[in-house]
Amino acid sequence: MQTSKFLFSSKFVARSTFQVDHKLQWFPGHMRKGLRDIGKVLRRTHCILEVHDARIPFSGRNLNLIKRLVSNKPIILILNKSDLLSAEFRPLIRSQLMEKMYKNDIHLEDIVFLDSIAANVKHAGYSNQFLSIILNSIEKIPNTIDESDFSTEEKSYNLLVMGIPNVGKSTIINRLRNVYLNKAGKATIIGAKAGVTKAVLERIKICDYPHKLYLFDTPGILEPSFNRNENNPTNSPEQFMRCALCGTISDEVIGKELIADYLLYWLNKQQRFDYVDFLGLPSPTNDINEALTHAAIKYNQFRPFKNLETGVQELKPNYIPLAEKFISEFRKGNFGHVLLDIDIIKTT
Ligand SMILES: Nc1nc2c(ncn2[C@@H]2O[C@H](COP(=O)(O)OP(=O)(O)OP(=O)(O)O)[C@@H](O)[C@H]2O)c(=O)[nH]1
Ligand SMILES: [Mg+2]
Hints:
Layout: H1 11-23, H2 29-42, E1 47-53, H3 63-70, E2 75-80, H4 90-103, E3 108-113, H5 121-124, H6 128-139, E4 156-163, H7 169-180, E5 204-207, E6 212-216, H8 237-245, H9 251-254, H10 256-269, H11 275-278, H12 288-299, E7 302-306, E8 313-317, H13 319-331, H14 342-347
Parallel strand pairs: 1-2, 1-4, 2-3, 4-6
Antiparallel strand pairs: 5-6, 7-8
Helix pairs in contact: 1-8, 1-10, 8-10, 10-13
The structure holds guanosine-5'-triphosphate and magnesium ion.
Function: Plays a role in the regulation of the mitochondrial ribosome assembly and of translational activity. Displays mitochondrial GTPase activity.
Protein name: Mitochondrial GTPase
InterPro entries: G_CP_dom, GTP-bd, GTP-bd_ortho_bundle_sf, GTPase_MTG1, P-loop_NTPase
């Protein structure tokens, strides 16, 4: 396959900018409620664990929202799903994010890379060092916490886990409980779709010693702040699509074919052509319809439709499940490790 001769064109951007733009207004009701609930438990919170998807360290984080919610509390940023990230970018991501947060007056205690589903605890990143980062930051807690709720209780600390949908917040809570408290089972539900946690839950204990630590799980909040402005100079419709590709917005809201189209665009731009074999293509293409039509042949995915002119039943490629198959392959990491924000890191 002569991939080097393949010329990438920006067909995706021209075709879909309009479609993406009008979807930026979307903001589901449970997120509004989630935001209100977060506001209520914040006064009982000593430290914030912000969870984000490591493949999009810059896209989808709403710094205005973080500033508004976090105010003077210590914040630790967890970049989860690091098993899917190209590992060589970790140091650059860390330094550029630290700098960006500093410029935005957000004081990050630390950035931790986690692979929260790894079977091996050390490999997952839940070392004693991770616990130490949390414990060190709660020592710096300002004296503004309302402790009235706990006057009859033994001293304990509350951490609020927040972030956009589907980044692994609930998975991390279950795993922390499992690792540091040796408790099996799940205290909070997880799921592969965005919007699994619908409300701020009761406190979940994750550690007994040297301090009692409790976590509040919260629904994922993704505010539509993707328009470029002073505080978010790089947030754009393309970054919105990266969030969609990582499953942080329900696939149905954006449309699976549009997400697949963006995936094809991104893979081509990075000259990563593993998709060619997967979709049964003879060579790279930037046409999603052509790509999914070949996939229909390879996976025998057609659906019947009636040709209104001839009245004859014909077969058409079944685009939506094929788009889903393509996206799912990417989400499993089968097109390799990625940094979707690679252009941002190179130009920052
Ligand atoms: N590859 C990978 N998948 C992960 C990791 N952590 C969580 N997941 C998967 O990501 C999906 C979402 O996990 P949840 O824990 O439900 O995410 P959440 O942030 O609580 O989602 P909402 O409650 O919907 O906001 C699940 O399918 C998890 O198995 C990780 O480190 N790596
Ligand atoms: Mg959840």
